Batch of 2 targets.
Target 1
Amino acid sequence: MLEQRIRHTGLRSRIVSAEEAQQWVKDGMTIAVSGFTKSGDAKAVLQALAKRVEQTGDKLRINLYSGASLGETDTILCEQQIIARRLPYQSEPRLRKSINLGEVQYTDQHLSHTAELLRSGCLGDIDLAIIEATAITETGGIIPTSSVGNSPIFVERAKRVIVEINLNTPIEFEGLHDIYLPKDRPNRLPIPITKVSDRIGTPDIPCNPDKIIGIVLSRHTDTPSNIVPADRDTQRMAEYILDFFEHEVRHGRLPHNLAPLQSGVGSVSNAVLSGLCNAPFENLEIYTEVMQDAVFELFQSGKVAFASASSFTLSKSMTEHVNASLSKYREKIILRPQEISNHPEVVRRLGVIAINTALEVDIYGNVNSTHVSGTHMMNGIGGSGDFARNAALTIFVTKSIAKDGRISSIVPFVTHVDHSEHDVDIVVTEQGIADLRGLAPRERATVMIEKLAHPFYKDELLYYFNRALTYGGHTPHILEEALSWHKRFADTGDMRQF
Amino acid sequence: MLEQRIRHTGLRSRIVSAEEAQQWVKDGMTIAVSGFTKSGDAKAVLQALAKRVEQTGDKLRINLYSGASLGETDTILCEQQIIARRLPYQSEPRLRKSINLGEVQYTDQHLSHTAELLRSGCLGDIDLAIIEATAITETGGIIPTSSVGNSPIFVERAKRVIVEINLNTPIEFEGLHDIYLPKDRPNRLPIPITKVSDRIGTPDIPCNPDKIIGIVLSRHTDTPSNIVPADRDTQRMAEYILDFFEHEVRHGRLPHNLAPLQSGVGSVSNAVLSGLCNAPFENLEIYTEVMQDAVFELFQSGKVAFASASSFTLSKSMTEHVNASLSKYREKIILRPQEISNHPEVVRRLGVIAINTALEVDIYGNVNSTHVSGTHMMNGIGGSGDFARNAALTIFVTKSIAKDGRISSIVPFVTHVDHSEHDVDIVVTEQGIADLRGLAPRERATVMIEKLAHPFYKDELLYYFNRALTYGGHTPHILEEALSWHKRFADTGDMRQF
Ligand SMILES: CC(C)(COP(=O)(O)OP(=O)(O)OC[C@H]1O[C@@H](n2cnc3c(N)ncnc32)[C@H](O)[C@@H]1OP(=O)(O)O)[C@@H](O)C(=O)NCCC(=O)NCCS
Ligand SMILES: CC(C)(COP(=O)(O)OP(=O)(O)OC[C@H]1O[C@@H](n2cnc3c(N)ncnc32)[C@H](O)[C@@H]1OP(=O)(O)O)[C@@H](O)C(=O)NCCC(=O)NCCS
């Protein structure tokens, strides 16, 4: 058993307990961990660290870098006030709270950028990388588990590495991953992906065995994703998008198998992909960062030819199905480093269709994906910008209202811009779909309000826009009212004027 | 003479006057023209059209697509109200006015995106392309003049083509250009540029001769660029940037020849490049969209090894120098389609250093490059987003104040976002330089205010930030005050509170 999991004979002697390993983490260190949308995150050592801090009352603060969000480890570390600085993404309520209190310095980054910023030297040194693995190869190579994330660049850059061999992960994970790191400049070459299914790297993360200071055996399971089932609204949004795809195919603007699809986490994205199970498209391809349950439903219905991502984010039951069928899926799936799954070069070359969720959109098509009321961080930009900016077709979805109608997600002026008007093609709410391609701002506003706004807010949006027109300008606004809806919500708990 | 300019014998019979050619332009057509930052724009036919409209009172409105800004042709057409829709960039006061009045529908686009949007079919058909040329080859290929811009995609997509052979352009332009169009998907391949100097295409724009319905001989000259000479402030900004480069080289974060430089139009960019003439860097490379005078000063001082762009924007005297020395410069210069000069794939691969100008920047690093007071279009985003988003190092410059201090260019909240906080590394004013890399928003605000704000506004910015902190959040703001500085300027003509 262990021979299979640790094939490099010299490394078998480095097995330590999580409790021993956590002692290598010192105050002020930068720790880089595997993990992407709660999958494949290194759990054992950091949770043991949190326990130590809780028990001893030690004061210890670290910079924590990851692929994307970790599971409960983010929460546990945050409760012990261990995280001083965090990047590039998170989605845990407890951590979010600390970020918004200014207790944790959070650098919200495009997920394809972190590797580059590490290379450039401006994120400092990585003292220790902790990587969850299925196995270690004969040469010390690390086989990841359910995500690749930033692990390859972390292993390359870290001074020392701890590997957490997760004995609960099926050994069949080996061969699923495709590890490729662009060379340092000026020797960088084109990334040779021209098809979603192209394998361009190695199945393992190359690692000098001397760097591996300890191996921890663990049996922690990933925090399962709890996908909210589609409701009437998300269902309707999915239908608008599928109708739109059919329309584009009819007009020769999309081929019959569409284009490689990216879809962000969340229930709408999942509903759109589920909807494709019964839509008249075949041989679909997925080029995304996270595979949710729906991707495997599409495989089961024979609709998808190939899927590439950086991680799985699956429900408990789908995890069981996938883990039991890995050898079958290995021919049809690749997990890549997030630098590659999200790389502008590849996204643009393949002509991806990107579907991501907005918190709010303004009447001119500017999108806020991150900041509630412009100030409070929700999760982070994640990969939405990597895809939205470079996709051939960029779609944003959002329900037209939030909090039972007390908030309109279509507003005069967004309180934060993550995706500018230049990057947004299509916006969808449960009210309708707005095609903004080629339109000037005044034209966009008319379509946005007409198609997307909730009846609670439509008249008031029109009233704003029409008065703004009297002030003139390419993008008319009434500056003193632009943010008044958000202010009203802060004061009264409702954006509506009664 | 004409044999050299029109080498395809069959085409010589298609020579017509500009007055004849303008009759092919009909009401409602989409006309696509060569031209990028006032260089190499097709001038003769459209100016003849304007004259006809002026003389006859004909009502005629067209959609006008170009590479980037045209010279006086934009003004002349606008005066006759011929332009119904314009994209992707402009910079003429008369046209700007019509756009801000809502008379011209202007779609402000990333300059690398227009070709893709044409391929996708969402910008409609091109009825007629009008391309300024140095010559036509034996096979009908079109040799551009001082810019390439979008001409290759226009020629490929247009139903019909008019060529304006400009007899004033030196025949030595031939061989300077490198024309490459990515293939349609799914057959698209990596763009094989790995060095600034790589030639990957043909010297001419391939064109089916049957499409060329007319050839006009012209002698119009490009509208010369009038670069504002460096003043004390721009000089100081250039010095901060050059010191920063030296600092990065000392710390091993940049090599001795830096990295391929992109620099936007404008006096600061020009001053930075000029400053490099006396800086301790050698073998510099330029990968940009526009070459201003300073690039040639750098060539003259032996500092630059190679320069790639999509156009020249030169003063009258520098134009004379360059035109007389083209055969010498041809070994060291390439002019490319703007899709390639600005392509995210190449910009990221080469690790470009991007320097562009902001109108205003907020305390968290969000940049407005386009909208005065959030409503009135200045020029457009141009290529700034193509570069800023994908560069290895993204720098924005702006004077800390405008209009004699009545406007602060560092504000609590920008009125429009073209480049989000995720994409901005360094901001420079004449007051100092702020390095935002790796910082969280609250940290950024402190540095921005401290280093960049003008003394007129520093205390008030600090006062805003400190009170915003009491409201909390990842990115603290006071919503009801966020835009109040702009409102105050609108009401009183001054952002300062007296
Ligand atoms: C934008 C994002 C937060 C939406 O999440 P979601 O779960 O799909 O959407 P929901 O509609 O359930 O909204 C989530 C919460 O935001 C609230 N919300 C939605 N719109 C809001 C608005 N305009 N103002 C304030 N709150 C709003 C909802 O009420 C809900 O609150 P709750 O958690 O208290 O119930 C999420 O998609 C995200 O983090 N995106 C950025 C990262 C990304 O796009 N990655 C893509 C690649 S994976
Ligand atoms: C932003 C941009 C307009 C700055 O232009 P510039 O000529 O370098 O800068 P200036 O400081 O001279 O400012 C231009 C005008 O804007 C005004 N201005 C500057 N900051 C301002 C502000 N914050 N609010 C209002 N007006 C402002 C100046 O007063 C000046 O006005 P004037 O023409 O009436 O004198 C210009 O760089 C641009 O259009 N950028 C977007 C496109 C781009 O970056 N392309 C890059 C690739 S080429």
Note: The pocket of coenzyme A (ligand 2) is lined by residues B 264-267, 289-290, 356-357, 359-360, 369, 372, 378-379, 381-384, 399, 402-403, 407, 409 (CB under 6 Å).
Target 2
Amino acid sequence: MPLIQNNIPEPTLRRLPWYLAYAKLMLQRGETHISSTQIARDIAVDASRVAKDLSYINLQGRTRVGYQIDTLIEVLNEFLGFTHNHHAVLFGVGSLGAALLQDSGLKQFGLDIVAGYDIKYELDGMRINNVPIHHIDAFADLQRKMSVPIGIITVPVDKAQDVANMMVDNGIRAIWNFTPFRIHVPDNIVVQNTSIYAHLAVMFNRLGE
Amino acid sequence: MPLIQNNIPEPTLRRLPWYLAYAKLMLQRGETHISSTQIARDIAVDASRVAKDLSYINLQGRTRVGYQIDTLIEVLNEFLGFTHNHHAVLFGVGSLGAALLQDSGLKQFGLDIVAGYDIKYELDGMRINNVPIHHIDAFADLQRKMSVPIGIITVPVDKAQDVANMMVDNGIRAIWNFTPFRIHVPDNIVVQNTSIYAHLAVMFNRLGE
């Protein structure tokens, strides 16, 4: 089980994977130790922020010459939950949903999508990257047996709230919402919004095309 | 051409697609007008923030009963650059890269990936979702002919900086970085970081598993 501290600020949680990626790179390059100053310089984050971020995790590997890289990687991986296998279901096996089912990177980071659901009857019984696809009507029954904690939403915007409601009603405790629709859920439900198309808007604007 | 104002704060640019998604939903439901108060209530953003965000765009559709929805959608779509066709190349046709090539949602939001590049010779000459894949060595020559402005990075972390350098050297002006590595680029290059795995870390932590 990863060491969990629920009081960690979200920006810190989002930066820790940067340090992990950087540490892995340094290990590949044959380094054994890195300091927070070096991390800060190479990834352009303020040094005091790096040190503060890393203070949230229980790091034994700190020496006079900095953090021992292999320990840092191990502790970060575990702390971030990447070594634990988290089951998830995905609703909406369209273009983006099918793409996510095919991304094996998610599994490497601890997310194991165990089923896909869609309203299209013709998808029922298919497998994508070995993940079984079911009709959405089968969800309540299957969920009673499997108690999957995480739900991924890749349905069209106008179905996002209905799907979120169905997830919450059936015991889903965390929702990863890929639609640009802001879903309403009870306070005890964890929501992460990843609207990749919103990033496009920023890029297009800054590009000034 | 979309109306571009480069002084728009990034948080505003990221919220505008929420309003667009919401407006499309209301249109589908047969509504003709929406107020910023209504938007604010339904997507849980402060009403004054919605009004401020929308003040950045040149909206003619405002009446006593709020914004005219069809105008709001049209103006937001154009303002955000979603109606314009932006060419992009993608480096790293692995699991995530291939998944992005297959996501037709990107094209609907104005991003047209015209080529994929990879170091694997066996991928050279393939097509994924009708996008041609080339060996990375062909990039400089092809880029001279095509002058593609946007580069997408889905390579392994240890190759991210090399690929970013190659993109910048060959005239790419905006980089969409899907790796958790913080690339270094000149100040005039636009960078958007979308590390979807970092969102997993937040979700796992909040879920408390």
Note: The mean pLDDT of chain A is 90.
